[in-house]
Amino acid sequence: MAMASVFSMIINGELPGRFVWKDGQAVAFLTINPVTPGHVLVVPRAEVDHWEQLDTAAFAHLSDVAQKVGRAVKDAFDAPRIGLLIAGLEVPHVHLHVFPGLSIETFDLANADSDPDPAGLDDAAVRIRSSLTSLGYGEYVPES
């Protein structure tokens, strides 16, 4: 039996996560290695390694959540653009990177902050949750 991915461990509450979205199929939480403040990962609850292996409905739902979270991130951080990346090399569990696209350099995960301030991550989560709620998605926003 394969060991659960780190994302499954976060989803299951075995590891901490700063969640901004939870529904029956997907979650979104802040990454611990952001390229910019407000960098969120949108992750299916189902543990699938490669994005092209998701069934079409699951991928459509993940994309829908990423778009809604992206609107909230853009609002919360007054970003000129929102970045969306599917890299899939760091963790063997599909995840979409959603982040303020401040410059072309923010699209390079090699530029991620490996030691972000926990208070800054907490603040980003609060800002995104607040924005999601004000955009009408409050039913999917966890309290913390």
Automatic annotation (TrEMBL):
Gene Ontology BP terms: nucleotide metabolic process
Molecular-function GO term, any one: catalytic activity
Domain HIT: 6-109
Pfam families on file: HIT
Active site, UniProt feature: H95 (tele-amp-histidine intermediate)
InterPro entries attached to this UniProt entry: Histidine_triad_HIT (IPR001310), HIT-like (IPR011146), HIT-like_sf (IPR036265)
Xref: PROSITE patterns: HIT_2
Position of sequence motif Histidine triad motif: 93-97
Gene3D superfamilies the UniProt entry points to: HIT-like (3.30.428.10)
Cross-referenced PANTHER family: ADENOSINE 5'-MONOPHOSPHORAMIDASE HNT1 (PTHR46648:SF1), HIT FAMILY PROTEIN 1 (PTHR46648)
Protein name: HIT family protein
